[in-house]
Amino acid sequence: MQQIHPYSDSRLVQGCVYCGGVADTDDHIPSKCLLERPYPENLYVVGCCDSCNQGFSKDEQYFVCLLESVLAGSTDPEKIRRPSVAKMMQKSPALRQRIEDSKTEIDGQIAFVPEHTRIKNVMLKLARGHAAFELSQPCREEPNHFWYAPLYLLSTNDQEAFKAVHIQQILGEIGSRNMQRLLVTQMTGLNENGEPQNMGMLINDWIDVQDGLYRYIAIDDMGSIIIRIVVAEYFACEAVWEL
Fold first, then answer.
1. Burial class (CB in 10 A: 0-12, 13-18, 19+), 56
2. What number of other Cβ atoms are within 10 A of residue 105's Cβ?
3. Interhelix angle for 83-91 vs 57-72, to 10°?
4. Which among 156, 144, 111, 119 has a CA at the least distance from the CA of 226?
């Protein structure tokens, strides 16, 4: 992955990006359990306290095991597509049983009832990490808008809007990694007289961390911080903070 150094004010993000405490360790964003070996080079990290780092671990394990069980329709490690998650299920029979106990049947289809508090903990942690790393924006408070769901539950129009690149209107934090990633392009439109005119545009595109496993886009525009995440091309999340 491309290594970009921020040139924004270093005072913007100090301490643990999750709680504001002393950042005595680093946390990978996204968490390694969401990826497979070989991991991307220069995997991004943010500063955090050891308490937060350890505190998210069990919820992250639960999330990835639940997600892969949903995709497989089973908690059987031999049916889990990701090797690292299959090993996790084998080493954690209690976790596997907990997910197995949540299995049910809806309209003849196997389904798993999620523990929403744990999923929210994981997704908000990821969103806060991306906001701090990409946008130099600490977002420790509760978001103004937050949702997560399987992508297929969104309407076709909502999926297209969610997956689209972002056309930047106003520059965010000067010197942030996100600002350095913006792409300049031109398109032809019509001016007020109806005549063709070339217009410059700033494109904020999705970042693919690992193909088919994790991608995200971080937006700082028009007074809003927006983080969108797609995990395993199945699970989608959006968190929005109004500044």
1. buried
2. 8
3. 110
4. 144
Token look-up 């903990």 returns 121
C-alpha–C-alpha distance, residues 16 and 198, integer Å: 45
Amino acid at 66: L
> Six-digit token pair at 207?
């970042």
pLDDT in tens, 49-89: 999 999 999 999 999 999 999 999 999 999 999 999 999 99
Measured in whole angstroms, how far is the alpha carbon of residue 64 from the centre of its chain? 13
Q: Which residues contact 175 (CB under 8 A, 6 or more apart)?
A: 6, 7, 8, 9, 136
Residue that is written with structure tokens 């004010």 in the block: 9
For the chain, give the number of residues: 243
